[in-house]
Amino acid sequence: MNIVILTGAGISAESGVPTFRAADGLWEGHRVEDVATPQAFRRNPTLVQQFYDQRRAHLGQVVPNAAHHALARLEAAWPKGNGFDFLLVTQNVDDLHDRAGHNHLVHMHGELNSALCTRCGAANPWRRPLLDNPPCPACRQPGGLRPDIVWFGEMPYHMDRIETALAAADLFVSIGTSGAVYPAAGFVAQAKAAGAHTLELNLEPSAGTPLFDEARHGPATQLVPAWVE
Ligand code: BJW
Q1: In this predicted structure, what is the pLDDT of residue 31?
Q2: Ligand 1 center–CA 152 separation, angstroms
Q3: pLDDT class for 35, splitting at 50, 70, 90?
Q4: Residue whose CA is at the smallest distance from ligand 1 atom 62
Q5: Is 208 touching ligand 1 by the criterion CB < 6 Å?
Q6: In CATH, what number does 18-61+112-149 get?
Q7: Would you please indicate which residues are annotated as catalytic (active-site) residues?
Q8: ipTM
Q9: In whole angstroms, what is the distance from residue 229 CA to residue 71 CA?
Q10: Range(s) for CATH 3.40.50.1220 in the chain?
Q11: Omega prior to 79 cis, within 30 of 0
Q12: From the CB of 225, is ligand 1 less than 6 Å away?
C-alpha cells in the first residue's frame, strides 16, 4: 500500500502562517506573484530579500499544529518496504512538517531555511537575513545568495521522486491546497491515472475538488487528525 500526501499553505494556516490566495494573502500590499518570480528578484532584489527574511524570521514564532503532528504519527506507523511506502510532498517553504518529525518528506517549492548560491549552486542551511549580501558558506563568493525558493517559471524540486511515487500510489491525499499552481495541481490526475483512490481535505471546495474521488471540508487541525486516527 503506497500513500502520497500533498500539503499546501492551508495545513499551516492554523499555526499562524498566512496562506497565499486568501483575502489576507498580501505582503505589504504586494501580490505573491509580484515577489515570487525571478523577474521580481532581478527588478528589486532588496524587496524580495526582505519578503523572505521576514517570513524566515516569523518561523521562530510559530509551531506545528495538530494536523502536522497527525501526519508525523501516520508516517511513523506506516509500514515501509515489501510493497508499502510513504511520501509526504509539501509545497510549503516553512519547516513545520520537519519539526513535527518526518523521514519521507520533500519540499517541492524549496525552504525558507535554505539559501541558494547563484554562483556555485550550493544549497546552504540558512537561518539569518540575506538582505546584507553575506558570502556563500560553500564558495565564499559575496553577493550570490538568494532564497532557496522555487519561483514561478522555475522547475520544482524532487520531481523524479514525486512522479515515481505517484505512478505507484494506491492512495493520494491532498491537504490544504487551492490547486491553483502546477505541477502540484496535476498530481491528483496522475495518481488517479495510476489507479489510486484520491481524497481532498481542505477548508472549502477547491478548483480541483471535482477531480477527487472523495472530499472532506473543514479546518485541517480537525480533519487531518480525524482522518489519521
Ligand atoms: C485551509 C485552511 C485550514 C485555509 N485548513 N485548509 C498556465 C497554465 C498552467 C500552468 C501555468 C500557466 N502559466 C504558468 C504556469 C506554471 C506555473 C503555474 O502553475 N502558474 C499558475 C498561477 C497558473 N507554475 C510554475 O511556474 C512552477 N514551475 C513549473 O511549472 O515549471 C515547469 C515544469 C514543467 C513540467 C514539469 C514540472 C515543472 C513553479 C511554481 C512555484 C510556486 N511558487 C510559490 C511561491 C514560492 C514559495 C513562497 O514564496 O512561499 O509557491 S506560489 C505559491 O502557491 C507557493 C505555494 O506553494 C503555491 C501553492 O499555494 P497553496 O499552498 O495551494 O496555497 P493557497 O493559498 O493557494 O491555498 C490554500 C488553501 O488552503 C485554500 O484552498 C484554502 O481554502 C485552504 N485553507 N485555511 C484547511 N485551516
Answers
A1: 78
A2: 9
A3: confident
A4: 8
A5: no
A6: 3.30.1600.10
A7: 109
A8: 0.96
A9: 10
A10: 1-16+64-109+155-229
A11: no
A12: no
State pLDDT tens for residues 52-62: 999 999 999 99
Specify the residue with its C-alpha closest to ligand 1, atom 43.
Answer: 151
What are the cell numbers at 179? 490547486
Atom 51 (ligand 1) nearest CA: 109
147 lines ligand 1 (CB under 6 A): no
152 lines ligand 1 (CB under 6 A): yes
Report the separation in Å between the CA atom of 183 and the middle of ligand 1, taken as the mean of its atom positions.
Answer: 8
For 40, 59, 91, 92, 125, the CA distances from 96, given in Å and listed in that order, are 27, 8, 12, 9, 16
Centroid of ligand 1 to alpha carbon of 195 (angstroms): 24
Q: What is the CATH number of domain 1-16+64-109+155-229?
A: 3.40.50.1220
DSSP character for 143?
Answer: T
67 lines ligand 1 (CB under 6 A): no
- Confidence bin at 84 (pLDDT 50/70/90): confident
Paired residues of 205 in beta bridges: none
pLDDT band at 26 (very low <50, low <70, confident <90, very high): low
Are 35 and 194 contacting, i.e. CB atoms less than 8 angstroms apart? no
* Residue minimizing CA distance to atom 8 of ligand 1: 182
Helical segments of 31-154, H only: 32-35, 38-43, 45-58, 66-77, 96-100
| Ranges of CATH 3.30.1600.10 domains, the chain | 18-61+112-149
